[in-house]
Amino acid sequence: MAEAEIDVEVRYAETDQMGVVHHANYLVWLELARTRLCELTGFHYGEIEKMGYQLVVTGARLEYRRGARYGDTVRVACTLERMTSRTLTFGYRVQREGTLLARGATDHAWFDVARGRACRVPPRLETAFAVVLDRS
Question: Would you call 53 exposed, middle or buried from its count of C-beta atoms within 10 A (0-12, 13-18, 19+)?
Fold first, then answer.
């Protein structure tokens, strides 16, 4: 199983009036980790777009356990949990020094930009993403 991890230092602008990271910022962090996982397939997300494809978000789920605060460094981990002929599901963990702060998942559908519609995963990308698929 391939797992992409990134470290994020919480910025002041990401916090709310209570000094806790606003919940919407977690989705931004998940995207950073997902982009890193795409790189592990051998394709930066920008390359996928240049090939004429996008991964459209069709769903997002987050479960918050503890809050992160300004100045904290959090580690965001991403795995590819599920892959079908047309969709991908990524799983995430956000931790601070080993303590789980949040976990979640995002669902995505392959989209052919030129045709303007959902499509099957391109064979070249299917092979690449199969390499990082969590088969546990």
Answer: buried
